[in-house]
Amino acid sequence: MSLDIAAKTPHDQLAEMLAADMAAVNALIRDRMASEHAPRIPEVTAHLIEAGGKRLRPMLTLAAARLCGYAGPYHVHLAATVEFIHTATLLHDDVVDESTQRRGRPTANLLWDNKSSVLVGDYLFARSFQLMTETGNMRVLDILANASATIAEGEVLQLTAAQDLATDEGIYLQVVRGKTAALFSAATEVGGVIAGAEEAQVRALFDYGDALGIAFQIADDLLDYGGTSAVIGKNTGDDFRERKLTLPVIKAVARANAAERAFWTRVIEKGQQGDGDLEQAIALMQRHGAMEDARSDALMWSAKACAALERLPNHPLRDVLAELADFVVSRIR
Amino acid sequence: MSLDIAAKTPHDQLAEMLAADMAAVNALIRDRMASEHAPRIPEVTAHLIEAGGKRLRPMLTLAAARLCGYAGPYHVHLAATVEFIHTATLLHDDVVDESTQRRGRPTANLLWDNKSSVLVGDYLFARSFQLMTETGNMRVLDILANASATIAEGEVLQLTAAQDLATDEGIYLQVVRGKTAALFSAATEVGGVIAGAEEAQVRALFDYGDALGIAFQIADDLLDYGGTSAVIGKNTGDDFRERKLTLPVIKAVARANAAERAFWTRVIEKGQQGDGDLEQAIALMQRHGAMEDARSDALMWSAKACAALERLPNHPLRDVLAELADFVVSRIR
């Protein structure tokens, strides 16, 4: 491996190795996001899709199918499906969160309106459903239907768990699976299924996607509090201000004494936050080893993702997926 | 036929003839709208589903399957699917329309919030998708995926066509198919497909549902202006105040002279409405025969629905479906 390659992120490597497949996915996405009758639809979707997310989820599907030796056409449909589901959830999330920025651009709900975001999201869900139906594979439909339900359920759970100190690590995992891991694991699993991989490999692909998603989300939670260094940067504390029960907070609350519990009740449940409260929250999380333990959890999930890959065929794509599992926690190492 | 039966609406007759099937559908709906993890979900869905809509769509699926001789279990899954898709669209519609009342009760977006309505709607879509996947029938998946896309597309189109005098009858039909007819026609079509009916019968079932939905919607449009009697009642003019381009308005606009066009531009496009404008709108629609022509269109679609039924096996349910097609336009006869 040349130095040049070594310096590339796993994401860039995947993009290079899957370039031909991704070109087909992008063409299919462009074709299917159109609407003969309602020009508002491609306007909204183009705004979001062409803003160029990382396209990580479709690449996971392509990589899974390829490393299981798939040579048919349908991994492209499934990759586009996964990206459509992701885009639809982003549109609806921005309505739910009343967001104004996404990928550095104004959100669709801001540029058009909430109505367009809701309905165009529904359109993309329906389109994703058409795309996956074209594969003619009942099992991938089953997997993606279940993932869609898990995603929606996790989002509702997040809504009701938000600002509730009773949220425990079990609920947290449920929310994270809905938010991130369910689509990651479905993306990898359907790649294996469409390739006709044997059961143990399909299971390994699911486990990889699931663990990757969870590791990614915990790392994100930690970084929002400045990571383990706890250096307060520009974006530090967004989750705190939004009173989210993320993993380090949940761990610190579980270990809180009475005075600390009163603090958490005030800043998270009641939302009464003032100067110094973010620093105090970070200090409490560090005192109880909550940051350190959350970091260990993330590394454990990352290791779990890598272990799952060992049950898959030896393949250059498998090596990059391992690097990816490592990469998502590199920011908190 | 006894007088007692004759006095019943076609809807009541369907409910009686399909009572055992509908009990199974309701049990399945109750079972699948639950969520182990997120109690907010059954709260919201129960609020809407137990408000007791007419359950017309699931009955269409059951009737179609039964009159084609189906004896398996999956018409129940498909009927529940169709009701879930319908309920999901209602939840999202109420967010889009900022509605406060539905079926005589406060809407979910009012009782909880828009967020819950968006996400629980997504959950029901995902659940509907799981339900239909359980049938193992690729073709019904294809039909319902296409219907979902048509529904979403029609809703977006309605959003952009609203208050736009350029909306013609072609766009109107597209919107109506999205709003009403696409789910009606999918409901009847999948009933035939799951029963293994022959192609001509499946097509007849589609045509029936499509025509029924369009007839229903045009009748609704007319009634909003007091029907052909043009008697101004309590709910008369809701569409006018919301500046909707419904069929009688579209016809009147197409036949307007310059002065009339200025009137429509003011009240619909600019939304400047004052005392007497509703009466003036009705007078213009009557002067140009727009009400009368819309009424003819509705009757034509109703007749088309009945004609489609003649391509289906002779069956008591077929007779009730014919009565239903007649019933939806009885209010404007």
UniProtKB/TrEMBL annotation, chains A, B:
One GO term of the biological process aspect: isoprenoid biosynthetic process
Domain of life: Bacteria
Residues that span the membrane, as ranges: none
GO MF assignments: all-trans-octaprenyl-diphosphate synthase activity; metal ion binding
Gene3D superfamilies reported for this sequence: Farnesyl Diphosphate Synthase
Pfam families: polyprenyl_synt
Reaction(s) this enzyme catalyzes, per UniProt: 5 isopentenyl diphosphate + (2E,6E)-farnesyl diphosphate = all-trans-octaprenyl diphosphate + 5 diphosphate
Keyword check for Transferase: yes
Keywords, in A-Z order: Magnesium, Metal-binding, Transferase
Cofactor: Mg(2+)
PROSITE patterns the record matches: POLYPRENYL_SYNTHASE_1, POLYPRENYL_SYNTHASE_2
Assigned EC number: 2.5.1.90
Its job: Supplies octaprenyl diphosphate, the precursor for the side chain of the isoprenoid quinones ubiquinone and menaquinone.
Family: Belongs to the FPP/GGPP synthase family.
Name by which UniProt lists this protein: Octaprenyl diphosphate synthase
Source species: Fuscibacter oryzae
Native organism taxonomy: Bacteria, Pseudomonadati, Pseudomonadota, Alphaproteobacteria, Rhodobacterales
